[in-house]
């Protein structure tokens, strides 16, 4: 409190008097704020640190001048609050630090950012390099063409317990330098292509080191940083154009030139497997909501042709998205996210290539639609119906092949809706179910239009209505 009082009374304007209060402590940070994590001693410590840092930054809002010798140290300290998603920062700290940097005219300074990377961060990286015997990238940030064949030559298994001091040192380095993750995030926000390219040999190894962390939320922040970097290096990712148009204008970018896309791909795919039951649902959502868009951007910026891109996206749909949907059926928020990802990003980007996944997609979406419990989550039903409509629009030539599967599944939904009409629901669910009914009628009309030339289909529909007159509104619009 004495420090705060001194700053408020303007008795102490020297950076060394208040920078110590902003040094991020070397503790094992609590990333997930669940009931168990809140009982850990370090959780109390990180709360105290954030409260103290917030008080100091609040008192520095009027600070307008510092010595040139202190600018780099101040930038390093305040850059660690640039990301509100890390446990040593918050939205309040993010806003306060940005305001102080702006007042001191230290924000978006290319010269200082470059100096920050080439001096302080590079020195930290040298210590890391001495602890890691093998790396997937070279010192200049290029993918290694060949891993040493004799890396494990002469190595024999040892039967007794072994404790590696090197591993302990590596863990210690990560604890001491975890806050550099935010500094890397700050640099990635600068949107300075020349800065990133000239310091690629520093940025890439540091980012890959954090990707190797076991904690899934650390990986999520790495995804965020990588996304910022890709948007900066490939300006085409900012433009709102479809994937075909993107590849017509695409030029070779730095990620393609350095050949590190495969390394990033290996880092990102495990993030897609952070699912319940091994990962808590809330934590899983935080990771997936960053990992999927980042991987999508990586596939786009690293593919040499539209065909190659579509094949890679199809692989993600089949091996990850659909498998994940099957395992998160009891988690509404994750289901909505995954179907939204299919509807808004993955399927629209591949056009007719959706044929390669169509049978699995139709089956999975009909499973969602047919589940009577989804009536209590109308948004999920609306998303599933919209996705089915999108698939039929992109592959109309195959609609007739799935006509009976689609019709059977949608009739089930119609009957579920008919039963629920007589039950009382909240206004939110009642409005949602009405929208589902409208969307369902539109989808069935679309199927009938696409399948009107299919043999016997019209007669089969008429026979269904004769057997069950309640289907007349649905099938004979």
Verbal overview:
α10 packs antiparallel against α11 (216-233) and α20 runs antiparallel to α21. The chain contains 23 helices and no strands. The longest helix is centred in the C-terminal third of the chain and has 24 residues, at 427-450. The protein has 477 residues and is mainly alpha-helical. The chain is elongated. It has a domain at 2-107. The protein has helices at residues 2-8, 15-19, 41-59, 71-79, 91-103, 110-129, 165-177, 180-188, 193-198, 200-211, 216-233, 243-249, 254-258, 261-268, 281-302, 306-327, 332-350, 358-370, 378-394, 403-420, 427-450, 457-467, 472-475. Pfam families: Tti2. Belongs to the TTI2 family.
Based on CA atoms alone, the radius of gyration comes out at 27 Å
Question: How do the SSEs run, as a string of H and E?
Answer: HHHHHHHHHHHHHHHHHHHHHHH
The major sheet is characterized as: none
Rounded mean pLDDT score? 85
Give the low-confidence spans.
Answer: 146-166
Count of distinct strands:
0
Strand content: under 5%
General shape: elongated
Please work out how many helical segments DSSP would assign.
Answer: 23
Roughly what percent helix? 55-70%
**Quaternary structure type:** single chain
Structural class call reads mainly alpha
* Gap from first CA to last CA: 74 Å
């Amino acid at each position: 409190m004495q420090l705060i009082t001194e700053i408020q009374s303007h008795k102490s304007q020297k950076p060394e008097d208040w920078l110590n209060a902003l040094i991020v402590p070397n503790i094992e940070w609590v990333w997930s704020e669940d009931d168990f994590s809140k009982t850990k001693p370090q959780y109390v410590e990180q709360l105290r640190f954030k409260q103290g840092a917030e008080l100091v930054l609040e008192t520095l809002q009027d600070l307008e001048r510092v010595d040139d010798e202190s600018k780099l140290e101040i930038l390093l300290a305040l850059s660690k609050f640039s990301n509100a998603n890390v446990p040593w920062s918050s939205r309040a700290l993010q806003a306060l630090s940005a305001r102080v940097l702006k007042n001191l005219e230290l924000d978006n300074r290319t010269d200082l950012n470059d100096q920050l990377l080439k001096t302080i961060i590079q020195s930290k990286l040298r210590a890391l390099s001495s602890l890691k015997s093998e790396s997937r990238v070279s010192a200049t940030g290029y993918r290694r063409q060949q891993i040493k064949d004799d890396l494990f030559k002469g190595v024999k298994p040892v039967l007794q317990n072994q404790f590696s001091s090197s591993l302990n040192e590596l863990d210690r380095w990560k604890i001491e330098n975890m806050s550099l993750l935010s500094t890397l995030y700050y640099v990635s926000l600068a949107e300075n292509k020349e800065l990133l390219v000239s310091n690629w040999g520093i940025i890439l190894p540091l980012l890959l080191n954090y990707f190797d962390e076991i904690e899934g939320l650390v990986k999520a922040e790495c995804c965020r940083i990588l996304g910022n970097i890709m948007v900066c290096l490939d300006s085409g990712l900012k433009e709102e154009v479809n994937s075909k148009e993107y590849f017509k204008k695409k030029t070779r970018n730095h990620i393609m030139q350095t050949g590190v896309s495969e390394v990033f791909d290996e880092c990102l795919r495990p993030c897609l497997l952070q699912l319940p039951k091994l990962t808590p649902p809330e934590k899983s959502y935080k990771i997936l909501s960053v990992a999927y868009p980042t991987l999508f951007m990586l596939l786009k910026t690293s593919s040499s042709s539209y065909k190659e891109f579509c094949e890679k996206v199809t692989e993600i749909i089949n091996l990850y998205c659909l498998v994940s949907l099957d395992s998160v059926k009891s988690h509404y928020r994750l289901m909505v996210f995954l179907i939204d990802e299919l509807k808004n990003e993955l399927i629209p980007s591949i056009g007719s290539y959706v044929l390669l996944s169509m049978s699995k997609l139709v089956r999975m979406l009909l499973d969602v639609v047919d589940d009577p419990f989804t009536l209590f989550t109308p948004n999920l039903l609306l998303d599933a119906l919209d996705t089915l409509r999108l698939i039929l629009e992109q592959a109309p030539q195959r609609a007739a092949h799935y006509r009976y599967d689609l019709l059977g599944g949608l009739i089930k939904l119609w009957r579920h809706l008919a039963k629920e009409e007589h039950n009382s629901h909240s206004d939110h669910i009642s409005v949602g179910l009405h929208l589902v009914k409208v969307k369902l009628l539109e989808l069935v009309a679309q199927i009938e239009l696409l399948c009107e030339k299919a043999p016997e289909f019209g007669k089969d529909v008429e026979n269904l209505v004769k057997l069950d007159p309640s289907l007349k509104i649905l099938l004979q619009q």
